[in-house]
């Protein structure tokens, strides 16, 4: 077996400056009475339109400035945009409005010159924001660029979770990620489903990804599925039913093709039944 550890690279020249910025954001969010809308607006304006930092409100109302510029400026304030969960009947308005500015900050930062493919700064900022968006967020959470969550406040995340690029975490019905979970690029995890007869007939179901699970490239986990500990959903697979512990599932719909060589004996015995051994 070949292990390929991550390289240590030279620190960016702006790391001290960026660290000071991150610390100021973290300190603000640690205050339960902080104005999250203002935090989002001020920082996004500074990232996108620094010339308007001191006169944002005046600029938005200034008819001499082109319409498109004023619309873009107004969008720095999360109250002036809408996100998809706001249209859903089951959304807890109080909870969502509390996390909405931070979600908008997260998404907009990823599309800014400072964000984009900037790995270290992006990971650190999202880690700070996640602790104030998610229902629970463990230590060492790492999300790469363009990760999106739906509601945010229905996310429960354990320790040492890694979520790679362009992942969708649809937590409408709730998502629980255990410790040491890895979700690869372009994967999708859902927690709601629609009736095949009536699209407006929605069923929410919590999706659970247990400790040590890997959801690999472009894979999909459907609502209500439980991927048990050390399970693996292979590339392009669609998990429509529970994934057994230590099993590797591939295909559409995903089915078990092997048991991981590190599986304990109890799991090996149960590999054909799909039953969990009672404790």
General description of the model:
The protein has a seven-stranded mixed β-sheet. The chain has a five-stranded parallel β-sheet with strand order 1-4-7-12-15, covered by helices on one side. It has helices at residues 15-29, 36-48, 56-61, 67-74, 93-110, 119-133, 265-269; strands at residues 136-137, 142-143, 148-149, 155-157, 162-163, 168-169, 175-177, 182-183, 188-189, 192-194, 202-204, 207-209, 214-215, 220-221, 226-227, 232-233, 238-239, 247-250, 255-259. It folds into two domains: 35-81, no CATH class; 95-272, UDP N-Acetylglucosamine Acyltransferase, domain 1 (3 Solenoid), CATH 2.160.10. Strand 10 and strand 11 (202-204) form a beta hairpin. The model is unreliable at 275-279 (pLDDT under 50). With 279 residues, it is α/β, with parallel strands linked by helices.
